[in-house]
Structure formats: structure tokens, C-alpha cells
Fold this protein.
Amino acid sequence: MLKKEWDYVNKILKKIKNIRNLLQDESMYVIIVYDVNVSRVNKIKSFLRKHLNWVQNSVFEGEVTKAEFERIKDGILRIIDEDEDSVIIYQFPLNFMPKREILGLEKNPIDDII
């Protein structure tokens, strides 16, 4: 009887691991850096604040799902003028978190995030 229970627990653990792997595949860490016309700065900043953490002027970062990432890209494209503005997006898998080192003043310390 104990063997059957152990096998059952192992099957459940395997399913949980598969679900976790699927969820990780659906998520990523992004850093977005933008240089847009002054007339669009507040609009793009307000939009990105809804989805990511503000780091400093023109820089946002955070963990998002693939679906959220696509919504963010679509929102950015609706705001910017592609002939005049520039947005750079760095994507990282969740199992590879970039190391961040701050030189000088930290504009938005992580412990300020509620």
C-alpha cells in the first residue's frame, strides 16, 4: 500500500513540476528603455507604470507573462512615433536574472515598492 501512495505522490509532483515549467516558459523579465519626443514622455511613462517598475528616467523593468509583454509592446506602438522615437526592450528568461549594479544615486530603491 505504501508503494502505491508513493507512486501517486510522485505523479502529482511530476505534474506540479510540468505546470511550473509551463508557467516559467510563459514569463520573462524585461527592461524597457525609451527615448521619445517630449510630447509623448508622460503618456509612455504613465502607460509603463501600469505594467512595470520604474527604475529611473526612461527606464522600467519587471516580470511579465508573454501575454502581458505583447500588450505592453502593442501599447508602446500605439503611443510612439516610430519615425521619431526609440524604445529598446531587453528580454531575459526568468531563470537568468540580470545582475544590477547601481553607481551613484538610486532613483527608485526596491524597498520603496509596496
Remarks:
- The helical segments are 2-26, 38-49, 66-79.
- The chain has a mean pLDDT of 85.
